[in-house]
Specification:
The complex is a heterodimer of chains A (809) and B (164). Chain A is of the alpha+beta class and 809 residues long. Chain A is built from 20 helices and 33 strands. Classes of the chains: A alpha+beta (809), B alpha+beta (164).
Chain lengths: 809, 164
């Protein structure tokens, strides 16, 4: 086959491999309304289940009367804890090693808690049934403050104390109090205390990272269908980790894993909300077994915001020490973590506070100590990572605020302070004080590029003038310059230290090449908008030399996909992406032997070139991958079995450490508290870039979620434990009107241990964005004496800050 | 449960008769009875716009309208905007400019944008951002949605000019 007219560049371009902005293959169905989300699934005879939920945050249940509900037309069954108890399903294990009530077992611990499950012919009948269930409650004292919880005599979780009321050991060791869940320590306590005690300068600050919620536009839901004839359970649902769900369902139901098929159809955004296992899943499965019919459960928005996994709720207290000229010497961090009524956070087993120990950030801090106390309160369970890898957002917010506070203490420019303390390029791989080994980075280059791009010195000069004008009464607007340099830790993770409920956090890819040179690849992950079907095909195209357009990517069906731990924590590219490349290389290795046979040379005498194997030194002699695929199936080759398939299970040797430099320029109206983002510059280094278009899209989205969290979004409770932000009327989701245009930029520092050098990007903009927006607000008021004010910085809180600083006088 | 009534609707150019309780919300009639699953449910309080359809020439959030109120009306959903062989310029533009990620808001977003471009054929960025503020997207940060709508407007206007 001769094709001289086609250049090597043409051949590379036609593959649409790594590095090109390939258009998404997912979009055809989504733009035409042909997506297949869980609520689109319809099965013959399907029933609908919905919950009776507790109006109280803490109450004893004295009686549940379902008789009237059973009379409601269309209602077929009402499940309570009493019905689930004989099956041992009234409680379920959480991902954090705690257990959680599936249906209220004698008491409720948060408002909106699941009390009974009504199964009816459709959702209207289910709603009528819910109205008719009569539950008698006896109110108990409500605790929504974790510090109060640690002092209170009220035992929130009687199931976790001994007969004498003393706390039994939890999943992470001894507990200090009956409302205490765990203490997690990391680093060197005494040396850190010594360094801080002897330091020239110490800055101390407390901050609250408020409770919020990932709030994907599609709520959580499932359809359970128990086929009693074949003994097979099929469970469709909004699962970010379908294989893990299968294993958990098997463990708690006793149904053998081969008889369970879990399918994640299209998912309308996840952001961490769809990692955990929820009572709705368990009740739907039980209801399908009881009724013999498929049962669908879909949350409404209020259910979603009030009951399924929240994020954050960290009370952080820090001390940072430095020399007079700004070299940081030590860092101390204590966190009081509010986990709500059950510890249902989704962290690897050995990390009850996730990767909070990345809180030394981008800085060369020689000594550090971190201590986290988890606490029960009368709030919803959760503690998932909202677009961040296991508490990294909290960690980065903490260190980026502490840097700003230290800059104030030192009366130093915050950019200069960062530059003095960045880990230097030549220090990588860098062993951080709290244990992690950062794989690669070049922080100074990224930072300088960012400072030049925004004309940092010019901005500071403008700000200085603005402050003078403000003081002279010429303007009522202040200018804030928010800075952030973040270091992420993603790609969980090495099986030796990362597991969830004992399930190792490797991931997988299985490739099958078809005889005519197209292919299907299946992965253990599941896209929720990240565009896996587009980008994973690009990785393969570059690895195996077949066009991305000829490669189908399939995920989310446990009957067909290889086992993997799913998509969250920016782990798809670092882990499954690596598996994809490695599986591709196995394909290539076999292809090399076939090519050598066909070209009648030794294996070592052919080499891979874009889409073919060529004879070394004789590029006119070659076999394309397409030709090799056909031969693999249809030509008898001595010593080589037919077919061209490969599978790879990839256990990453380390995490990956993406980083970035962000600048937010914000105008603040002192009299109204209204903020206007004049400029947002985001430089991201995610290592090797697979699809720049998708990377930029991820950054726009992550920054917007960061804007939401920093400037207005929260799950707020009153003293009675009532959720004050249970609908989109009160829970802030930015619209196109509130969101600025972002400037994106990049540097490329590949991960040295990842097969293609990629690090992951989905969460970086959120992790870096939140402190950047928040720092801009703080920076605007720095000249007037502000050190710390807690998020969310909505108009009212900013107005209050200005007022407290005397700017309205 | 209350008495069921018959309602006649015109959906995507087809006259259909449905039997429903008067309290049934239009989004459920579309999704459950008519298998029109393009419009989605995101909030049930008129905030997110995932359920946006066009009714008698106006953008309407079908999660807060009773089917009874839609009697006799002309309803267009994403399914009525284009076909696989003849996509609406907005459907092309959203793909071309990466105006979507998870796709859940997309049908409502495109349906609303199609009306916006009838209301304002050549909108400024500010007009697009204001005109689309009833539709929430959690993935894209809107930047590429704005870009997509601008591109589609240019495409539609160029086609109009060519036809004249």
């Amino acid at each position: 086959m001769k094709d001289e007219a086609v250049t090597r560049e043409d051949r590379v371009a036609s593959l649409k491999g790594m590095g090109c902005s390939r258009k998404r293959v997912e979009d055809a169905r989504f733009t035409q309304g042909k997506g297949n989300y869980v609520d689109d699934i319809k099965l013959d005879g399907m029933l609908f289940g919905d919950f009776v939920r507790s109006p109280y945050a803490h109450a004893k249940i004295t009686n549940i009367d379902t008789s009237a509900a059973m009379e409601v037309p269309g209602v077929l069954a009402v499940l309570t804890a009493a019905d689930l108890a004989p099956l041992g399903l009234h409680w379920m294990p959480t991902l954090a090693g705690d257990k959680q009530m599936v249906l209220a077992d004698g008491k409720v611990l948060f408002q909106g808690q699941e009390v009974a499950f009504v199964v009816a012919e459709d959702r209207y009948a289910a709603a009528d049934g819910i109205e008719a269930v009569e539950v008698e409650y006896e109110e108990l004292p409500v605790i929504v403050d974790p510090f109060e919880a640690l002092q209170s005599d009220v035992i929130l979780r009687p199931d976790t104390v001994g007969e004498d009321g003393s706390p039994s050991d939890g999943a992470h060791g001894p507990r200090k109090h009956h409302n205490h869940i765990f203490t997690w320590e990391c680093g060197d306590k005494d040396p850190t205390e010594q360094v801080i005690a002897n330091a020239e300068v110490v800055a101390e600050e407390s901050m609250y990272y408020h409770r919020t919620h990932p709030c994907p536009l599609e709520t959580c839901g499932c359809v359970a269908s128990m086929d009693k004839v074949n003994g097979k359970l099929t469970l469709w649902g909004t699962f970010q980790a379908p294989h893990a769900i299968r294993t958990v369902v098997s463990l708690i139901s006793g149904i053998e894993e081969h008889n369970i098929r879990v399918i994640s159809p299209d998912i309308g955004g996840g952001f961490g909300n769809k990692v955990g296992a929820y009572p709705g899943y368990v009740c739907s499965v039980v209801a399908s077994i009881v009724t013999g019919k498929p049962v669908k459960w879909i949350e409404d928005r209020m259910d979603n915001l009030m009951t399924t996994a929240f994020a954050r709720d960290y009370w952080m207290k820090g001390r940072i020490s430095a020399t007079k000229d700004g070299k940081i010497t030590g860092l101390h961090c204590h966190v009081t973590a509010d986990h709500g009524g059950f510890d249902a956070c989704a962290d690897p087993t050995k990390f009850p506070a996730g990767f909070m120990n990345i809180c030394t950030g981008s800085y060369d801090i020689p000594t550090a100590f971190l201590e986290v106390d988890g606490v029960y309160t009368n709030k919803a369970p959760g503690g998932v990572s909202y677009r961040c890898s296991f508490r990294v957002t909290e960690a980065v917010y903490f260190i980026e605020r502490m840097i700003e506070v230290l800059a104030i203490e030192l009366d130093m420019d915050a950019s200069e302070l960062r530059k003095i303390n960045f880990i230097k390029k030549e220090q990588f791989p860098y062993k951080a004080a709290l244990g992690w080994e950062y794989d690669s980075g070049d922080y100074h280059t990224a930072w300088d590029k960012a400072m030049n791009a925004v004309d940092y010195d010019g901005l500071r000069a403008e700000q200085k003038q603005r402050i003078e004008d403000f003081k002279a009464g010429k303007t009522r607007k202040l200018l804030g310059i928010g800075l952030t340099h973040f270091t992420e830790i993603v790609g969980a993770g090495p099986v030796k230290n990362c597991d969830i409920l004992g399930l190792g956090m490797f991931d997988s890819c299985e490739i099958r090449i078809h005889p005519t040179g197209s292919a299907i690849a299946r992965l253990g992950t599941i896209s929720q908008g990240q565009g896996h079907a587009t980008t994973f095909a690009q990785i393969l195209a570059s690895e195996i030399g077949l066009p991305a357009d000829s490669i189908t990517i399939e995920e989310g069906d446990t009957d067909t996909a290889p086992y993997g731990l799913g998509t969250y924590g920016s782990r798809s590219t670092p882990v499954a992406g690596a598996a994809t490349a490695m599986a591709g290389r196995k394909i290539r290795a076999k292809a090399q032997m076939i090519a050598a046979y066909l070209l009648e040379v030794h294996d070592d005498d052919v080499e891979f070139d874009v889409d073919r194997f060529v004879v070394k030194g004789a590029p006119e002699k070659f076999k394309t991958m397409k030709e090799i695929a056909f031969a693999a199936y249809n030509q008898a080759i001595p010593g080589i079995e037919p077919g061209l398939e490969a599978v790879s299970y990839y256990d990453p040797p380390n995490m990956t450490y993406p980083f970035g430099a962000y600048v937010c320029v914000m105008e603040i109206d002192v009299d109204t508290g209204v903020t206007d983002i004049r400029q947002f510059y985001a430089l991201d280094d995610c290592g090797t870039r697979i699809n720049p278009m998708i990377i930029e899209g991820q950054i726009h989205g992550g920054l917007t979620e960061a804007l939401a969290v920093a400037l207005g979004q929260e799950i707020a409770y009153d003293d009675m434990g009532n959720v004050k932000t249970g609908t989109l009327m009160d829970f802030f989701l930015p619209t196109a009107w509130e969101v600025p245009n972002y400037e994106t930029d990049h540097t490329v520092t590949p991960s040295p241990h990842h097969p293609i050098g990629a690090k992951g990007v989905g969460e970086s903009p959120h992790v870096g964005g939140v402190p950047c927006f928040s720092n801009a607000v703080h920076d605007a008021f720095r000249a007037f004496g502000l050190r710390q004010t807690n998020m969310p910085h909505d108009h009212w809180r900013i107005w209050r800050t200005a007022n407290e600083l005397g700017l309205h006088d | 449960m209350t008495q069921k009534n018959q309602y006649k609707l015109n959906v995507n150019g087809q006259t259909v008769e449905v039997t429903a309780e008067p309290r049934e919300l239009l989004i459920y009639t579309l999704r459950e009875q008519l298998n029109i699953t393009g419009p989605h449910i995101g909030c049930e309080t008129s905030h997110c716009g995932a359920c946006t359809v066009t009714i008698d020439g106006k953008s309407v959030k079908s999660c807060t309208m009773f089917v009874a109120q839609a009697e006799g009306k002309e309803i267009t959903t994403i399914e009525g905007l284009g076909s696989p062989d003849a996509l609406h310029p907005l459907q092309e533009a959203f793909k071309e400019h990466h105006g979507l990620q998870c796709g859940y808001c997309t049908p409502g977003m495109i349906t609303r944008a199609s009306k916006l471009l009838e209301e304002i054929p050549n909108p400024t960025e500010e007009e697009i951002r204001f005109g689309m503020a009833g539709n929430i997207c959690r993935c894209t940060g809107y930047q590429n949605i704005v870009k997509s709508i601008k591109a589609a407007a240019a495409e539609i206007n160029a086609a109009k000019e060519a036809a004249q």
